[in-house]
Design goal:
- The chain is mainly alpha-helical.
- The chain has one domain: Sufe protein. Chain: A (Alpha-Beta Complex).
- The chain contains 8 helices and 2 strands.
- Strand 1 and strand 2 form a beta hairpin.
Length: 135
Amino acid sequence: MQSLDDLLEEHSFLDPDDRYRLLIELGRGLEAMPDALKTDATLVRGCSASVWVYPTRRDDGTLHFLADSNAAITKGIIALVLTAVQDRAPDAILAIDIPAALAPFDLTKQLSSNRTQGIPNMIALIRHEAERYAG
């Protein structure tokens, strides 16, 4: 997985259509989430598309998230969010200002409000899981 800085550098050189394609490509690169994990318990509320996020805790204490969506662009947004937090310790995740980290990508200007309305809920779910495992 690329870092947010690497993605932002690539993103800054692209025109709006190619930025959209970049998000779709990011989504295609997400680790597959088994259908059995796509349940009401893992469903992120408030998203225009169906979004599922499932946390796992690794032996080293880091959190690894499996996620999926039924919409390609939303899946790309999830991949972008996960780039900020994937495989980090819960305390490290809680220390990240995820909205600030994503702000340079200007998602609200590039995508419709329907596409971005669920981002705060995805972030809240990730933070909740990090809080659950922190300490």
